[in-house]
Write a structure and sequence with these properties.
This protein is α+β, with helices and mostly antiparallel strands and 98 residues long. 36% of the residues lie in helices and 32% in strands. The longest helix has 15 residues.
Length: 98
Amino acid sequence: MPPPIHAVAYYVTAEPEKREELLQTLRSVAAEIRKDPGCVVCAVCIEESGCFVVVSGWKTDADLQRHLHSEHFRVLSGASRLLGAEAEVGFLRSDTQA
């Protein structure tokens, strides 16, 4: 049975004229996040509604907590605000007991 993944999803909705710039920024930050210790995955997804979702998975809760206090997470949050986007953070859980 695989170990649980500790994950966070960052949902971002941008104004139409800022979408491309925000997408490029999110992709750049995601590439850096993938290099962080404990990162299993970091992907930028685009919903049909135009909302971006940055999902990252971490080996341990400590890795996730370190990410949430990292410069990369601050850049992710700051870039969204600078580009006039609305953002929301959600925590995901995989459970091996299911």
